[in-house]
Each structure stands twice: as structure tokens, then as C-alpha cells.
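From the pipeline queue, job 12 of 40. The input is one protein chain; the requested action is below.

Action: predict structure.
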Amino acid sequence: MIAVRDSFGKALLELGRENKDVVVLDADLASSTRTIYFAKEYPDRFFEMGIAEQNMMGVAAGLASVGKIPFVTTFAVFATKRACDQVTISVAYPSLNVKIIGAYTGLLSGYTGATHQAIEDISVMRAIPNMIVIDPADAEEMRQAVKIIAQHKGPVYMRETRDEWPDLFDKSYEFEIGKAAEVCSGSDATIIACGVMTSEAAKASKILSKENIGVRVINMSTVKPIDKDMIIRCAKETGAIVTAENHNIYGGLGSAVSEVLAEEFPTPLLRIGIKDTFGESGSNEDLLKKYNMDAGYIASAVKRVIKRKKVQ
């Protein structure tokens, strides 16, 4: 397993070698976000902005306006809440080519506790016009996503997980903005997940396979624009859906999937995630278990939603 943030840092360094227009701005967190790799090799293209996230977004917008490709990195709570006005007006409104990387996302933030756990960042950024929102599932997807978002013209928000996480993809995988990927096959129900919860969903699928329940797992790493075709196809083919996200169930992946189903193909649905509460300090394993987000709980949710399918 490779820490997703390490994959990000190394991919950003490689991108910097390939493209001299790439610049990096960080808010006194280079060692945490792993932009330290880029800073050491390209100090003339690395800007340490200090704990001044609002100003950092404005500077990034200025750099983008003269043809640079700024990668702006800080903890997700600061990127999406403290600097929300600057992101909205200075970056998204003129649709500038700024890539915002929010680190330490959801509950899994290295014992930092509620103040540093970004449980609403997806909902904030998803609601901003022109903004792409991505939550990579593992190190390989992160590696590929760094290069793809650099090629995309316009603002992007991408989540960066702190710790090591199970690998789901190898180099044969091809990440594409707006396209989901099937991780496990099955016809009894579908789990649509994003970020590190995709691997928990895959574990849940394995648990249920022992009971002869076939569960399809979809990695929906692009939350906006969401892959509507994949959602509708899974709803029609399996008839029951569970969403899983390291985020509040309000406004994130679960809400996005619900919106598609409500408008296109109403289907029994259960949402797994942080249930409108603040988090706390703890290990990743303990937090997932306490907040009913681990593989075992996801498996039980699948059973419940399948029963609703049969009733209908």
C-alpha cells in the first residue's frame, strides 16, 4: 500500500518536470500535503503562502490569469470553508485554471479531530458553478488524476487522503473525468462509492459473496460531473443501490446519486457516510466502525436495501 498523499506529491513532481507552467502554492503544510517534493526540486516555482489561505487563492487566480497552472494545497477544511469566497469569486466565477487540492479529508485525518476533519467539503465545492470535484480511490488513481486535471482547462477541486490505503487499480487503469469504473461485478445490488470508501465497498462485496449475494461496486471518483449513465444502468440492472462516502451524507456523493435517481429512475437507496454529526480523534479503523462506515456495516446496508427491492 502507498499513502495517497505520497502518490500525489510524487505525481506533482513528475508533472512539474514535464510542464514548466505548473506552479505550486502551499499554506504552511508542505510536509503534510507532500508538496515538499516539488518545493525541493523547483523552489522557484513553489510559493509558501503561510497560514493565509484566502490570499493564497487570490494569488493562484492571478497566476492562472497569466497562463500558469497553479496547484493550491492545504487541508480541505481550510480550502473549502475558510477560503470559500475567494474560491467562488476569484477562481470559479472567471473559470480560471486553478487546481485546488484538499488534504486530510473526512474522518480519516490522522487523529486531528473535528476541527480538521473535512466532512462537508464535497457539498461546498459541488455547489460552486464551473467546479470539477474528484475523490480518488487509491494511489494509482491519484497519480493519474494529477496529470489529467492539469490538462483540463478550468477549476478543479480534488481530495487528498492522508494515509496508506489498499490498492484497487494498476497501471492498466485509465482515469477519466466524469467516468466511473466498475470494481466488482454483481447483479443483486450496487454499491456506488468514492475515495477510500471504494475499498471498503469492495470488502463488503467480498463479505456478501460468501452468502451468495452478488454486489456490483462502482468507483465514482468524479462526484461532479457525475456519471449519470452509470448510475442509471446500475439502477436498472441491479434494482438497489447503496452509496458510501467519507463525507456527510448530506450534499456529497449520496445526494448526487439520489438526485440522478429521483429524476431518471427511482430506485431503493441507502446512504453510508457521516450522518450529520461532527467527528472526533481516533484511528481510521475505529472511526469507520464507530460511525457505521466500515465494510461490515456497508454489507448490512446492502441486505436491507435488497429487502426493499423485493417488497417493491
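Job complete. The longest helix spans residues 295-311.
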